[in-house]
Amino acid sequence: MKYRSIGRRLWDERWSYLFLVPMLTLFTLFTLRSIYFSFFISTYRWSGVGDPTQFIGLENFVRVARDPLFWNAFKNTLTMVLAVTPGQLILGLVFALILNRKFRGADVYRTLYFLPVVTTAAIVGLIMPLIFSPLSGPVNVVFMRLGLISQPLDWLGSPDTALTTVIIVMIWKWTGTYIVYWLAGLQTIPDELYEAAQVEGANGRQQLFRITLPLLKPIAAVIILLCVVGNLKPFNLIKTMTDGGPYFATDVVMTYIYRYAFSAEQGIPRLGLASAAGIFYGLVVIAITGVQGLMVRRVNAARKDASVQSRTQGIRVATGVAGTR
Amino acid sequence: MKTTRRTVETALTHVVLASLALIWIYPFLWMISTSFKTNAEVIASLGLIPDRFRFENFVKAWVEARFARYFLNTVVTTVSVVSVVLISSAMSGYVFGRRRFIGKHLIMGLIIATMFIPQGSTIIPVYDLIYRLGLLNTLWGVILAITGGAHVVFILLFAGQFVQIPIDLEHAAVIDGCSFVQTFWHVMMPTAKPVAATVVIFQTIHTWNEFLVPLVLTLSKPDLRTLAVGLYAFVGEYTIDWVGLSAGATISVMPIIVFFLFVQRYFVKGLAGAIKA
Prior knowledge:
The structure holds two protein chains of two kinds.
Chain A: H1 6-12, H2 14-41, E1 44-45, E2 54-55, H3 59-66, H4 68-99, H5 106-118, H6 121-131, H7 138-145, H8 162-186, H9 191-199, H10 204-231, H11 235-241, H12 253-262, H13 271-301, H14 304-319
Antiparallel strand pairs in A: 1-2
Helix pairs in contact in A: 3-13, 4-8, 4-10, 4-12, 5-8, 6-11, 8-10, 10-13, 12-13
Chain B: H1 2-35, H2 39-44, H3 56-63, H4 67-98, H5 104-113, H6 119-132, H7 139-147, H8 152-162, H9 167-175, H10 180-188, H11 193-209, H12 212-217, H13 227-237, H14 242-276
Helix pairs in contact in B: 1-14, 3-14, 4-7, 4-8, 4-11, 4-13, 6-7, 9-10, 11-14, 13-14
């Protein structure tokens, strides 16, 4: 290949750079600048009016770290992740195993179970207080008729039950995603393996534990990663459903940030403090993602060939070039 | 014998799955049925079939509660965001998938490295940016802020598609005198229609459901609320109007549910493909 000077190479690909301009503009303004600005503003006391002038060093971080309400929100966020993730994954896997048996109508069920996923989270959050309302909300009416409770419960309004109720709603809202993910995983397992197992006389249980689950491992690592990351950000649902209440029982880091940054209840907005909380939260999310990403890599390293194969296949499926069915 | 057992098994599966599905979508059925009722009727009965179908709640929501306006805002926002995201992702995907240039891996690494930053960490800078651009309390600001950032998954999908196109096709285009832009638009883009469909579907659903950005950017301008933000404000004003709230919620989510039902085959395929990739 002929040697070309750097200037020449840049000039030859001028159209490539031009084609990146829209994406890079949006990326620079909304991602890179946001990272910079978050760190910058977190060292100021700033109400959002005019330019920030009051530099206070790390005081915002110290305040956040000393605020029991922040740790409460942080704890709730983690509790939700730890409770919702297994719920969604296990329920999703059970549904997927049933629906994977390819009987007539399986697609209809999949669609129905998937409906909550595409529905606006903020609006689900506004309807749920009616469904769980102590004033003749359908959940209370049904539970009382079944004799499960003797008087209506204030599911979302009482600090004892609010967090659990939110967790149930979160599981319901997003399990459909994991049904689809698991189904995609199940379809990567060749039918011949099951046929061979049947010839050998393996029963359903043995097939599940010896073939299905072990072979799902590589894709399971990715699914778990996506599930955890998704459950770390429940803002829209929580904001409209409970707004972190009652008495901060369902408060999460994002509602905490919102309160300090945009809500009038707290008096003067404190954007620096909210940014400090946002940075801490962002770092935690990235750390969790990073650790899980390493785990995914380790699981997949053991099956490198398989993963390369499924990757190209995945892209083709996604683009619909090669229909698998 | 074996076939009978199979039939019974299948029937049983259907009974269980159908009952669960009914419970699963009950909140939606309840919401739709409530929008046809009166508040007194809701308290009195649990039945899903209303006494008679009243459309007053919808009319009230559409006209008095200004859902017509919110609906229009949401449609305009969604169409604009989807167009920009589609074009900008396709252009980036094209050069990442087919061209070799200095800085390619640096740029790709940078956008992939930042893809997991949560929205909570960036909403304040985004608010500040829109304010500085003078777009606070404008629909442009909302559109720009939802569009903002690199859409890594979409870019990779496009790149994955374009990388497969035989180089001969591109050579032929050049020989025929196609410019860079013409090659992209007339030769490459037609091969990527399925990817474009996936991007449009996902981004449409995402934008329709967006809440935090339109909420904070229209705090002092009710005229610009999207459906979700409008309904949120409605609840703040009329706490106990169950039927009004249900009618507003039905108006807000039915379009996206119907949209999903039409495109669900592609949607599910795209989701399944993304996980495998």
